[in-house]
Amino acid sequence: MKKYLNILKKCPLFEQIEEENLLGILGCLNAKVESFDKKYTILAEGSPAKYIGIVLSGSAQIIQIDYNGNRSILSNITPPQVFAEAFACAETPSLPVSVIADEPCEIMLIDCRRVLYTCGNNCFFHQQLIFNLMKDIATKTILFHQKIEITSKRSTREKLMTYLSLYAKEANAPSFDIPFDRQELADYLEVDRSGLSAEISKLKREGLIKCQKNHFELL
């Protein structure tokens, strides 16, 4: 576990917990690390919602597939982000989403009950862990509403420009890289890929954006 300390120190779940205490905490939480190849399912839709995941290396995507097989990307997750915590805390009978490796990655899995319920050792850090967990869930709720703001727009153009504007604001720069290729961006915006590509070409001709692959610039 020592080789992951630099990443875990930056993880929101362990905020304000001293580095020298982290290894002991991980032992108490019975944390385990697993490796996944690209496109491998880390957590499957319909499986029990019991684990909190932390991305240690690589990246993954949280996706949802509807009855007709249409895929929607809810979030792209990279180190040291936490995922599936809201479902685990709510003790949801089964996950309504899947978590898929977007590239080879290492994931730390923690049984949520180990965080929410204190152990017999009365470990001092549990109160801080629970506070951090609730803060992280609140932050994710804000991001979820941001996605609703994007996907609630009526046209592909409006969805795309809202997404790019929000990303530029977050990057504090008019030029930035997004974490999606064209198909993934279409899945995130919940639009047709061909329509998205046509709209990007139109915006480029109008001189509103420049882009190459996943690099965009707002003009």
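Above is the first protein from milestone M3; the second protein from the same milestone is given next.
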Amino acid sequence: MTGFKLAKERRSVVLKRKAQQFFGAWGVFFQGFVEEPVMVGSIIPSSRFTIRKMLAPVDWDRCQLFVEYGPGVGTFCQPVLDRLRRDGTLIVIDTNKLFIDYLNRHIRDSRFIAVHGSAEDVEDIIRAHGHERADYILSGLPFSTLPDGVGPRIAAATHRAIRPGGAFLTYQFSKSAQTFTEKHFDRIECGFEWLNILPCRLVWGWKEKD
């Protein structure tokens, strides 16, 4: 690498860092969207109304392991941790290292684990951290724009990873997540949140008890 290219790359890193410091979490979220729009799907984090409605059906007293796909800058992370048992665990999985690094710097909670990886590998990730199954898995991934085959594989792996009685929680602008969820889960509940940019569909896919 030439000295000019190296200097240019360093300036780019410095500018990104300054933008993150100035705009905070919103700046990091926007940068993540620019870098991986197919995986992020939105330039604006979810509203507090979406968060409250999405998490409302969770039985927090029985939740030992909560998993989230695509946490971004942690819009759901603190609300989940605020509700989670003291001996519970929150594992978040994201393919964007920018988000994982940001979360590790800003969330200081022994129950929190951020993994740089793919939701397709959720079973291996759960086992690697000492768990057999998750109680709930939350996803804001844009299933409608994921590469061919990825959505179905994530939905199938998610069903295997959730314990009987648990649920797969999704929020998305399109109906794609619901379509994949319906193929695997026994009971489907749907909702809608207007007070979000953009208004989004909420789906809870329940895995019936044995």
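Note on the second protein: Residues 85 and 98 are 28 Å apart (CA to CA).
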